[in-house]
Design goal:
single chain; alpha/beta; Maf protein; 6 helices; 7 strands; about 35% helix
Length: about 200
């Protein structure tokens, strides 16, 4: 089912996962990738980090359009208070997967929507907890060789082959993929209600 908004919707990202999720949710949108450098500073509180990055990405693209709802998101993986970004190389991917093996971690996403030209902003946080089963060294080697972990925060894809390592999940599956659709729907509905008021 396609969701028709009265206003142009712009996704400030060229992430294949976010594009697919937003299409699956039924939204028609344009894509204008942000130009923000996604620096991860581990000394920053995780929720503050994703909030800042989501806002900066959205604001960056909001400055390039005249009349639209601009949406963007930022996702990080947090394990025992350590922020895990995308692996730097195969060795780093193996290190991250070894760390996650047999333990819980959080996937935290901040979603930001800015209305142009009113500049009204909404920002929400979504969190999914995941428990990984014990992963053997051979499984890690094989998975890293597949290439799937290399562009994923936390070095695995819950929607791909990485799902075989997931023992338990508490929270939104779409958030674990990269965009919490339940939260997105509520945020966009808020703008729709205001349009009709």
């Amino acid at each position: 089912m396609q969701i028709i908004l009265k206003k142009r919707l712009v996704l400030a990202s060229n992430s294949p996962r976010r594009i697919t999720l937003l299409k699956m949710a039924g939204y028609h949108f344009d894509i204008i990738p942000h130009t923000i450098e996604e620096d991860i500073h581990c000394e920053i509180f995780p929720e503050k980090l994703v909030r800042n990055l989501a806002f900066l990405k959205t604001r960056d693209v909001a400055g390039k359009v005249d009349d639209a709802l601009v949406i963007s998101a930022d996702t990080i993986v947090v394990h025992k208070e350590n922020i895990l970004g995308k692996p730097k190389d195969t060795r780093d991917a193996k290190r991250i997967l070894t760390m996650l093996s047999g333990s819980w971690h959080d996937i935290i996403t901040a979603v930001c929507v800015i209305d142009v030209p009113s500049k009204k902003k909404l920002l929400r946080i979504d969190r999914t907890r995941i428990k990984m089963r014990e992963i053997t060294k051979d499984e890690i080697e094989t998975y890293v060789r597949s290439g799937e972990p290399m562009d994923k925060a936390g070095a695995y894809a819950v929607q791909g082959e990485g799902k075989k390592f997931v023992e338990k999940m508490d929270g939104s599956f779409s958030n674990a993929v990269g965009l919490p659709l339940e939260t997105v729907r509520k945020m966009l509905n808020n703008f729709i209600k205001n349009e009709n008021a």
